[in-house]
Amino acid sequence: MYRFHTSLATRLMLGYGVLVTVSIILVSTVFYFGTIGILGQNIDAKIISISQNLTGAFQASRGEDLSTEINRQLSDRIDSDKEIFLVLSPAGRHLAGNLSTWPSTNTPLGQLVTRDVVRDGKAVSARLLISRLPNGELLFVGRDLSEQKSIRILVWRALAAGASISLLLTIAGAWFFRHQIETRIGEIRRTALEIEAGDLTRRIPILSNDEFGLLSLDINLMLDRIEHLMDSTRHVSNAIAHDLRTPLSRIRSKLDDALRHDMTVEALSAAAYAAIEGIDDLILVFEKLLQIAEAESGMRAKLFEPVDLNRIVLDMVDLYDATAEGRQVILKASLKDAVFAYGDRNLLASAVASLIDNAIKYAGAGATVEVSTIADAHSVSLVVRDDGPGIPTEELPRVTERFYRVDPSRSLPGNGLGLSIVSAIATLHAGKLMLENGVRGLIARITLLPAEVASH
């Protein structure tokens, strides 16, 4: 089990929770100042406007109608429960208005301030603007903030309730998020542990088409490939043991026989030549294995260049012409104009040589082997076709495995590495070896990218 603080799911859950919480705080802050702030600005603007209107009315009437205007506004039932007015004489005597207690006259003039006052016998918090009139009187214009306070409290409660519900949902969502991740990762880990214990048949269940489902599918494909490679390795190991044991046993038997019986120069010489021939066969097997490993490693890819496939076919047909004639096989070439691939000429020539050699060897006397090139807009191909017995259909998928032989008795010549080499060379060139039975015989096709496509 992993520790809580090292869990990726836990870190993602916490990050998700923190992100949502910060988002809630930011949204709540914007909402609060967007409501209470604007409400306060509207109150301030209204106070300033009323103060300016009353000051203008005072100047127009020379102060005679100011008290009348104030009393009218207090009795017009328009915001009468929130309006605050007060007129003080220069000596500080109450002349008009609805305040019984007011701020000190030392309060800054011409500035909006918030003070506690007594309005109509009730203590309230008020927003005030104090102005000095031309005759020395003080004009107080303000608004009762009780309603704004109630709205502020209501907004705070609404935000608190909304934030609480959001946090609860965030916690639930984060837990569900963590649970889902841990469940999906847990399935992968459990499968990995069972495979580690030796059960290579286990696969991750694919429950959806999301990222985890696609990852599970990719891992399952990888496991299929690994299982196939493990089976191939076991087969290769058995084949190597058989193919090496037989010639080594034969070499040892001949040397032992030469030493136990008449130890003449001729007998010893014959035994030595036989041993050298057997060792050469073993060296050939190892050289082919090294050739496959080199092709699969991709080391030769840096030497790639445009290669004329027609030239390779003509050279290989010319090379094997005598061999084909000796086995009573007709070998011919059929070429298209200007067929170029991007690759290693020697490797491609080796692949074609292996296919021609197999075709001549297994097609039988009287057969025809045709080597051709094919080109279209998207690919070029090297094709070796014969009219021999072909390969059983059920064996086609396995003949490119190392040391795999269609002949289980291994009585026919060969070591089962030729097609493995061809397949590795095709893969190195971003191509593919395809084998299929025709109407008569086998069709072996190496499909490659055209030189102008592969070089880019």
Instruction: Output the CATH class name of the largest domain.
Output: Alpha Beta
Q: What is the CATH topology classification name of the largest domain? A: Heat Shock Protein 90
Number of helices: 9
Separation, N- and C-terminal Cα atoms: 48 Å
Arrangement of strands in the largest sheet: 2-1-6-5-4-3
- Could you describe the largest sheet, including whether it forms a barrel? 6 strands, antiparallel
β-strand number: 13
Strand content: 15-25%
Structural class of the helices, strands and pairings? alpha+beta
CATH architecture term of the largest domain: 2-Layer Sandwich
User: What is the number of domains?
Assistant: 3
Give the topology string: H per helix, E per strand. HHEEEEEEHHHEHEEHEEHEEH
Cα radius of gyration in angstroms: 49 Å
| Average residue-wise pLDDT | 79
- What would CATH call the homologous superfamily of the largest domain? Histidine kinase-like ATPase, C-terminal domain
Identify the overall geometry: rod-shaped
Give unreliable regions as ranges: none
Q: Give the fraction of residues assigned to helices.
A: 40-55%
